[in-house]
Amino acid sequence: MxxxxxxLRILKSHKMYLVIYLGFIGVMMFAISWxxxxxxxxxxDAVFHPDTARVAVVDRDGDADGVSSALRSYLALDGEMVxxxxxxxxxxxxxxxxxxxxxAIVPHGFASDYQKYLDGSSKSQPMxxxxxxxxxxxxxxxxxxxxxFLSLTRTAYLGQAGTRQSLKTAMRTVMETAETDAASSKITxxxxxxxxxxxxxxxxxxxxxxxxxxxxxxxLVMPVCTFLVVGAFNDGEIRRRLYSSxxxxxxxxxxxxxxxAVFGLVVCVGYTVATLALMAMAGVPFDGLTPANxxxxxxxxxxxxxxxxxxxxxxxxxxxxxxAVNAFANVFGLLCMFTSGMAFPVDMMPEPMIMIGKLLPGxxxxxxxxxxFGLGTASVAGVDYGAWASSIxxxxxxxxxxxxxxxxxxxxxxxRPTLASPATTQLSR
Length: 429
Prior knowledge:
This protein is mainly α. It has 2 domains: 2-43 and 197-425, no CATH class; 53-184, 3-Layer(aba) Sandwich (abc type-2 transporter like fold), CATH 3.40.1710. It has 17 helices and 4 strands. The longest helix is centred in the middle third of the chain and has 33 residues, at 249-281. The two termini are 40 Å apart.
């Protein structure tokens, strides 16, 4: 018990790691999950609402024949009209600052040139100049609407009776048709009737996605904390004193690992409770989330935590420096996160990235959680206990491998004479 209390004091003396790795990184992961859950909770409208483009119409033709006014009215049906000064610097600033998504410029003499084009006296079609914001997809769609207005106007003009052809009448016809279509046409969102429809609930997706985010902070905090405990007991002077004590080294090592494992258990419980609380605050219904799902996901997370503890035991047994352990934990954690399928969907990952991910424990943690909830490529016919056991078993094997390596390398360090006593005290010299 003295070893456990000492290990707890070591952890307490390094609170900054807990604040940074567990607190700051954990909050960042929860914030990402919060945004995803809020978007999912608020994205259940039955009608699709497209992005609204901010459009400015610059009239340099004095609104001849009402072309500029008609164009502005047509674009206002799907966009938000704004005013911009007809100055080169002001126009550039408006586009560069994303104040507008599209600027439509009606050049001087456009109405007369367009009338000639419609009458057939001119083969050259005049164009309305457009400037689209570099970062706006809505602006590109609004640009298509400008060309659409001109094309529909020409069609309506040619459809009029011979001598009664009028540009104003054609534009009025286009506007009336567009207003009618805008009032009656809506894009309805229809849920797919696929085979997995209804099998995966929003609660399952939200819980699984959030619990997976523990992959990165746990692989940061647990190896570092375990290293600090094991490394403190493996310090040269302290180790020589422990050799002379009646306490068995195996017992002390087991107490060190037990303390770190209990600490990891507390962290897993806190992470699971925080996940459920986050879902409640985001307004995600708990329908479809069963105690079995939550329990198995918790077991997956805890086994992964034990693997991280084993990794820290290996690093402490080897005798790495604190800086090297922090560097390794960050690199290893990022590698696991980006190749596990947690940060990116598996179908978006290249094949080499997937192959690397399958060689790391993070992939199998995410696979085990998918097996619990029937997500991704997992079965959707309920909990796949066999696949879950296989996936989490591979994570456990990583932990066993780390412990075995730690024991072997630790024994090699202990049998070195220079580690048992300082070179200056060896009488043989």
